[in-house]
Structure formats: C-alpha cells, structure tokens
Write a structure and sequence with these properties.
Elements: H1 3-17, H2 62-73, E1 78-84, E2 89-96, E3 99-107, H3 115-122, E4 126-131, H4 141-152
Parallel strand pairs: 3-4
Antiparallel strand pairs: 1-2, 2-3
C-alpha cells in the first residue's frame, strides 16, 4: 500500500466517523492546487431542463449517472465510489499509479459539511463537489466532464 493510498483511506475513515456539519460554503468546490473556475464548465442550471443528458434525465440513480460518465470519459483512472452510510453522500476516488489524485463528493444540498474538503486540501489532493438534489442544477454531462477535467488538471 502506497503512502497516498494509506492517507486516502485514513481521510475517508475519519470522514465517515465524523457526522458533524459546519457552516455552509458553496463558493469553493476545489481544494489543493485547483481552485474553482466556472468560466469554461458549460451551463448546467436554470428553470428548464436542458436537452443535453443530465442527472435528472438519466434512467438510474444519481451516483450511477456519475459512475457512467466517469468510466466512459476517464478510462485512464481507476475510479471507485463509496456511498456513505452515516449521511446522504457518495465519494468517488480517482486513482492513478496507485495514488488518489481526486476525490469527488456528491452531496445533498442540505449538507454543509466541509471536513472532507478541508482534509483533502491538507494532503494536497484535489477535491470536487456536486450537489445531486439542488433544484435547477442539472449536472449536465458536459458540466460534469469539464469540471472534473479541470480538477484533474487536464
């Protein structure tokens, strides 16, 4: 087990053990060296569902939608996900050369947890957050791909 893999497991274990939420902050989606830049991510919000494939037009669960996109668009990464049992969230881990390089957290818009994002920043691992139940936030395919590419430095 590599050092980063051990750190990743420790981060996820600590996070799963901690169910406390802190003050809500929706302005920063990335940690580590990647900071939010929504200028080139594609429009994914509004009152009318876009024609483009999106989380709500997908025939399946929200995490299955993200899993499908990630497996199709990022085959060079070993991608695993885990549904957290202590709260309504799913964490995807992007692994390259046996080390985690990105964590994607799918959260309820009612959550205000920052602990996992903070821990990722402490270890210099990129972090990305999507809300799966926010009204008018469609998580279109291009939006998910573009934000993920940016977080991976692609």
């Amino acid at each position: 087990m590599g050092l980063f893999e051990k750190i990743a497991r420790d981060i996820i274990k600590q996070f799963k053990d901690d169910t406390s939420d802190s003050k809500k902050d929706n302005n920063s989606y990335y940690s580590g060296s990647r900071q939010a830049n929504n200028s080139n991510t594609g429009c994914s919000w509004g009152d009318i569902m876009p024609d483009e494939e999106n989380q709500f037009s997908f025939d399946g669960e929200y995490y299955e939608y993200f899993e499908k996109i990630y497996n199709e668009e990022f085959p060079e990464y070993d991608i695993k996900y885990e549904k957290l049992t202590n709260r309504n969230a799913t964490i995807f881990t992007f692994i390259k050369d046996n080390d985690p390089v990105l964590y994607v957290e799918l959260l309820s818009s009612k959550s205000s947890s920052k602990k996992f994002r903070t821990e990722c920043a402490q270890y210099g691992i990129s972090y990305l957050r999507f809300y799966f139940d926010k009204d008018g936030w469609w998580n279109t395919r291009s939006y998910v791909i573009n934000r993920t590419k940016f977080a991976l430095g692609l």
